[in-house]
Amino acid sequence: MEIIQIIGLGFVVTVLILIIKQQRPEIAVQLGLTLSAIIFLMVLSKLNVVLDLFRDLAEKANVSQMYLNTILKIIGIAYVTEFGAQICRDAGEGAVAGKIEFAGKILVMVMAVPIIALVLDTIVKLIP
């Protein structure tokens, strides 16, 4: 199971960070960033299966590829925003993390406009 590997790697790096942090805090931050990149790459390969499933379902449901792509981009923005903000928090930069989250929320809102417009248009057409 990959999650066991990820958790084990996380524990090992956490112990290393705790040991190194007192003497060399800059290396401790680099270890955390390296772990983040490794975990990101480990789970990134699993996304193709999910994306293929979403595409198949959208095709069967006759949903426009444009809307599916928009939804997938929104999900991606949310995950990457959270990931980036957590890295900043781990480095002790909570203010920067907050700005990243704010930017992510704005981008999600902007990306969602076409979907919201479609839903509202559909509702208006349903009302006699």
Note down, in words, how this protein is organized.
This protein is an all-alpha fold. The chain is built from five helices and no strands. Helix 1 (2-20) packs antiparallel against helix 2. The longest helix is centred in the C-terminal third of the chain and has 33 residues, at 94-126. 5% of the residues are buried.
Secondary structure topology:
Elements: H1 2-20, H2 25-44, H3 47-60, H4 65-90, H5 94-126
Radius of gyration: 20 Å
The average pLDDT is 90
Shape descriptor: elongated
The helix/strand order is HHHHH
Assembly annotation: single chain
What is the number of helical segments per DSSP (H or I, 4+ residues)? 5
Question: What labels describe this entry?
Answer:
128 residues; mainly alpha; 5 helices
Brief rundown of the structure:
By secondary structure, the chain is mostly helical.
